[in-house]
Amino acid sequence: xxxVFYFIILIAIVYFTYTYRENIILLYNEYFVPIxxxxxxxxxxxxxxxxxxxxxxxxxxxxxESKDDLINIYxxxxxxxxxxxxxxxxxxxxxxxNDINDIANNQNLxxxxxxxxxxxxxxxxxxxxxxxxxKVSLKIDKVYDDEMIVILNYKLDEIIKKTIKDSDTLKxxxxxxxxxxxxxxxxxxxxxxxxxxxxxxxxxxxxxxxxYGLCGGYTDAMMLFLEKFxxxxxxxxxxxxxxxxVKLDDKWLHIDLTWDDPITEDNKSVLDDSFFLITDEELAKxxxxxxxxxxxxxx
Length: 299
What we know:
By secondary structure, the chain is an alpha+beta fold. The chain is built from 11 helices and 9 strands.
């Protein structure tokens, strides 16, 4: 009789295990597998930038315990160039899911990350999926695809070969690039004023390949050259504008190609350099409205 009882219990266990095997595996993974082992391994592409900022820093710990940790994780993943990534909240971080939802729904906060990464790793959108268990999955849709990057890299080398001399100083190189971009780019008024999209003018492809640009395109194009010349830099943005911030001769200086390529009433092409390598103080004296940026973010 006892053997029959044990046999029935064994059959019940086998049946239960088979029927609810997926739930058992999930429970095992949730409570017994260390979360460190479930985090996606970070892989950095060649456009990864080894820079840390006041706003965000590169990290190697992907188990956040605060909102600042979350921002650093988002930045590190975007900066790495990865398209998909999974990480987990610390079990001690009770507000983690709420904080992630706050970040994911704050487009200004998320988009600021693009200012600090290489243009080729910048994103059009980030889809965040978060589970009550603390599992967070990011899917990143990038601005530049592989074909655009190949074409742009070829164009960069071509422009440098035609316009830059080995004997040029860094300032001379930047001035030549500044002038080349302005002389070969038309501001895309149809897109800015009428919302008519004909070109990729909001990124470097529109500026360097299609020869039409908006402020985002001018800034990305310049940033690609800054990266080529190994000059520390990032982008500064306001609600309606973006431009380059550059470290040259131990000073941080502004370059705004959009404002150096003004639109005249008779549509004549103008090459200006009023916003080429100017200080914070000079920028504030020249134009305050469009360049009134958040100095807590862009230090």
